[in-house]
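Researcher: Let's do a round of design. I'm pasting the structure tokens now; please hold your answer until I've finished.
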């Protein structure tokens, strides 16, 4: 059964997002947005999911390098 995306649901989602998420806006050179979207799709991810994974992996790699582990 598919639920309708009502205005009430949209407002509820907005309030949840506001309480639970931080937003970061990034700018990329012209043309890169489409490359990023295509890469994410090829990995079966959303752009947001791909960017979050890339950040997490870079932070973990940097932590290991800085800790010497």
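Researcher: That's everything. Go ahead.
Model: Designed sequence:
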């Amino acid at each position: 059964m598919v639920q309708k995306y009502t205005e009430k649901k949209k407002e509820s989602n907005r309030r949840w997002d506001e309480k639970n998420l931080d937003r970061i806006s990034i700018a990329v050179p012209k043309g890169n947005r489409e490359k990023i979207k295509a890469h994410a799709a090829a990995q079966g991810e959303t752009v947001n999911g791909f960017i979050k994974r890339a950040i997490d992996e870079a932070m973990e790699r940097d932590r290991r390098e800085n800790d010497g582990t």
